[in-house]
Amino acid sequence: MNLIECIKSAMNQLLGNKMRTFLTMLGMFIGIGSVIMVLGLGAGVKDLMMSTFDAIGKGTVMINVKDGRPENMLNQSDLEAIREMKEVEDAVFVGENWMTSIKDYKKEDKWIYFAGAPYNISIVQDVEITAGRMYAESEELAKANVCVVSDTYAKVILGSDTPSDAIGRMLELDIAGEKHEFEIVGIKKEMSFPGMPEEMMPLIAYIPFHTMDQITNFGDLRSYTGGFKVKEECNPNEVAYQVSRLLDKRHNTQNGYQTQSASSMLDQMNTVMSVVTGFISFVAAISLVVGGIGIMNIMLVTVKERTREIGVRKAVGASNKEILRQFLVEAVILTLLGGIIGMLLGYVGAVALGNAFGITISLTSDMILFAVGTSSAIGIIFGVYPARQAAKLDPVEALRYE
User: Fold this and answer.
1) Which has more confidence, 281 or 161?
2) What are the pLDDT digits (tens) for 331-380?
3) Residue 189: helix, strand or coil by DSSP?
4) What is the CA radius of gyration of the chain?
5) pLDDT at position 194
6) What is the DSSP code string of 207-228?
7) Which residues does residue 182 pair with via DSSP β-bridges, in sequence order?
8) Mean pLDDT of 107-127
9) C-alpha to C-alpha distance for 144 and 287, rounded to whole angstroms
10) Tens digit of pLDDT for each residue in 260-272?
11) How far apart are alpha carbons 208 and 148 in whole angstroms?
């Protein structure tokens, strides 16, 4: 019996008992499907992170003062020294983040996060103005009370489905115990969190850095946070290290500044995602072992049921190798079909979850190879023993078997 005949015989056997075939493949459905779903969602989340960091720019580096001593705060002279480095395009201050509550149209309290940001904050952060405008350099230098808010502001605070309805409104913020009013001049697109309703998205506001500095730091143009953009041909991590050493030297400190590039943050997040995805995939893969054991069990039962058939085949000249191949092909086809169906089910499940959480899922070649390769390997590993048992049967004893 050649390979083609073995495949035809295997398909006839599997189709001859559809319910048992289905139940046998169920473990493969669950195992392969679960792993494909996890891998698909993991790849989708990684793509989302990559697109987010690509928008920010991998050459951006943030600076944070590690201790709270005012003398170590970044100052205008520090920024000029960083800008003079041949590897740096530009550097800016970023004011500290603050948080307060404001009333929405239902008179309920909503938290809003706000920070002092220079008019050219886009050097280190992705700022996409969807309505209105970004405040101008002249407004910042004049310490004007203007601001830009996230695109969910109108919906959450005003109850409007049109983000631009917030433009021209006044935003009252409690800063350091004092009330300050700011005119909303622009709407910025905020990064969305998969699956989170707009009403629950955090509210963000940008205020001119000079204005915020005047309110919180007496207008001396210092900050605990800053950022700079590295030229494309330079390594951001190396430049980040150079800047931290430069600041230590200028302020007579040791490791007093934390500099972190967007690319290093992305690497860290990718590492975490890979570990989490790998662990969940490992747990899901346990069901593959259970499914393999089930396949071995069913194949042993099949060998027992077909003992007389094996005896007849051996009596007419079939070799042990041919018998072994026949039953091994059946096991591989059983697991391969289960793996392919499980892959499709896992992909459909991943797409459904991805749509619910706003994540784009794609079926990659690695996933296909995993499904086909793993299911084939399980068929071979767990099919060898039953196939060998069939091949070793004595033809005389097999013919006597009832």
Assistant:
1) 161
2) 888 888 888 888 888 888 888 888 877 777 877 777 778 777 877 788 77
3) coil
4) 32
5) 55
6) EEHHHHHHHHSTTS-EESEEEE
7) 171
8) 90
9) 63
10) 887 777 777 777 7
11) 9
d(C-alpha 80, C-alpha 76), whole Å: 6
Strand-pairing partners, residue 171, are: 182
Predicted model pTM: 0.64
Q: Which of 198, 149, 187, 193 is nearest to 49 (CA)?
A: 193
What b/e sequence results for 174-203 when a residue is b if at least 16 CB atoms lie within 10 Å of its CB, and e otherwise? eeeeeebebebbbbbbbeeeeeeeeeebbb
DSSP states along 290-352:
HHHHHHHHHHHHHHHHTHHHHHHHHHTT--HHHHHHHHHHHHHHHHHHHHHHHHHHHHHHHHH
The band of 227, judged by pLDDT with boundaries at 50, 70 and 90, is very high
Q: How confident is the model at residue 42 (pLDDT cuts 50, 70, 90)?
A: confident
Tens-digit pLDDT profile for residues 62-85:
999 988 788 899 999 999 999 999
> How many C-beta atoms surround the C-beta of residue 67 within 10 A?
10
C-beta separation of 199 from 151 below 8 A: no
d(CA 57, CA 258): 19
Q: Which residues contact 155 (CB under 8 A, 6 or more apart)?
A: 161, 163, 198, 199
Q: CA-CA distance, 148 to 158, in Å (whole number)?
A: 15
| Distance (Å, whole) CA 383 – CA 115 | 63
AA identity, residue 130: T
Overall residue count recorded for the chain in this entry: 402
Higher pLDDT among residues 343 and 119, named by residue: 119
Distance (Å, whole) CA 398 – CA 401: 5
Nearest to 116 by CA among 71, 180, 199, 53: 180
Q: How far is CA 328 from CA 7, 323, 331, in A?
A: 10, 9, 5
- Return the bridge partners of 101, or none: 111
User: Hey, is 101 helix, strand or coil?
Assistant: strand
d(CA 39, CA 33): 10
Tokens of 288: 């593959």
What is the rounded distance in angstroms from the CA atom of residue 373 to the CA atom of residue 270? Answer: 25
